[in-house]
Amino acid sequence: MPKSAAMRRFDGPDKANPWFAKFKYSLVQGIGYEKGVVRRDPSSIISVNGKYYSWYTRAKPPCQPVGLERMTDVLPAHPWDLADLWYATSSDGFHWEEQGPAVERGPAGAYDERSVFTPEVLAHEGRYYLVYQVALSPNHRCTPESIAIAWSDSPDGPWTKSPAPIIEPDESGLVDERGDPEQARVKGSWDSLQVHDPSLLFRDGSFWLYYKGEGIGYSHMESKWGLATSDSPLGPYIKSSFNPVTNSGHEVVVWEYDGGVAGLVNRCGPEKNTIQFAADGINFEIKSRVVVPPQAAGPLRIDEARNSEPLSGFSWGLSHVIPHSSHLIMQGRDPLGLVEIEEPWDFLIRWELDHERRTYI
Ligand code: AAL
After folding, report:
1. Rounded to the nearest whole angstrom, what is the distance from the C-alpha of residue 163 to the centroid of ligand 1?
2. Is 157 exposed, middle or buried (0-12, 13-18, 19+ CB in 10 A)?
3. What residues have CB less than 8 Å from 41, skipping those under 6 apart?
4. Which of 125, 285, 346, 353 reaches 20 to 30 Å from 35, CA-CA?
5. How far apart are CA 284 and CA 278, in angstroms?
């Protein structure tokens, strides 16, 4: 039978490509679907004394998020609004025990008064660092959101917060009188509206902080990733003059491989749903196109000795499911068909590379 050019590619180079990935998903216990509770945007997983640790956004609002027009001091605009960072531990990656809050919102007037959310973790020289997003009140679409850091000598805390955010949006652009950043009066730079999704790596003696930027005058779906580096984990962080370092991508997911940095670029932009690699951590190239990637994935961090394959640092982890879509809710199932749901509360699931299906069409 003759084959089309697309199927010749798929049966040949695409299938044999060690960067190609398919995923399978399973339910987790302890931090999975729970009516009335939001759990989302999990960090990478680290293993400490034989236990896995994960941090994530958690909220327990009085009702479903009400949107930006109706939000109040106690009613959240979004699932990640009025949230705190919680953590859970596990011995097998399937059964998790929720341990409680790690970093909570600050008092009125603090830079993190409205919400702390979307954490990432770095273990470095016996210390633990959480990087995460912070939001001020009131939380409108154009409220600047920044990135902050907290540290501790134990993964169980207590955590000390930085006195100020470590990355702020670029000061450029002007929103219109209705506060709609997409209809800007003056277009700003790619990260002038908000900075999100920090992920911290230690490489070549420096701290490399990747983050997502959204700009004034850009659509929400035009997010990209940038990089800021520092000699000290607590900063000051200097934004790279190469920014943005991707032209696409929503939640930042990066891991180290072969002296460079690999990333899952998903959801937004012309290169969405690709795995990319930059030998120098800056100049990313597409290595593969992936199928149904995990959303906001937090992969297990591994040590250098086990990092032998492109996807060794991206072999399993947690991700979130956002069951907003009404017809799926009417059917009473989440988008991946894994769990019966009564109301659309975001929840965490486990993903892993599907080795069996890697060569399956
Ligand atoms: C996420 C992340 C950030 C955004 C929102 C909550 O998936 O990109 O954290 O602000 O959505």
Report:
1. 23
2. middle
3. 56, 57, 80, 117, 118, 119, 197, 251, 296, 320
4. 353
5. 4
Residue of 196, 220, 295 to test ligand 1 pocket, by largest number of atoms within 8 Å of CB:
196
- The pLDDT assigned to 144 comes to 83
Q: CB neighbours (10 Å) of residue 71?
A: 20
Ligand 1 atom closest to 296 (CA): 7
Rounded Cα distance between 353 and 263, Å, is 15
- Chain-centre distance for alpha carbon 192: 19
With tokens 């907290």, the residue in question is 150
Q: What tokens does 286 get?
A: 């597409």
Cβ 105 vs Cβ 116: under 8 Å: yes
Can you tell me which atom of ligand 1 is nearest the CA of 79?
Answer: 6
Burial label for 199, CB within 10 Å (0-12, 13-18, 19+), is buried
- Residue 332 is predicted with a pLDDT of 63
* Tokens describing residue 31: 């931090």
Which residue ranges have their beta carbon within 6 Å of ligand 1?
Answer: 41, 80, 117-118, 133, 196-197, 212, 250-251, 296
Record the tokens describing residue 163, joined without a space. 């006195």
Under 8 Å between Cβ of 224 and 211: no
Residue numbers in the chain where pLDDT is lower than 50: 357-361
Please give the pLDDT value at position 359: 39
Residue identified by tokens 């011995």 is: 91
Nearest C-alpha to atom 4 of ligand 1 is from which residue? Answer: 196
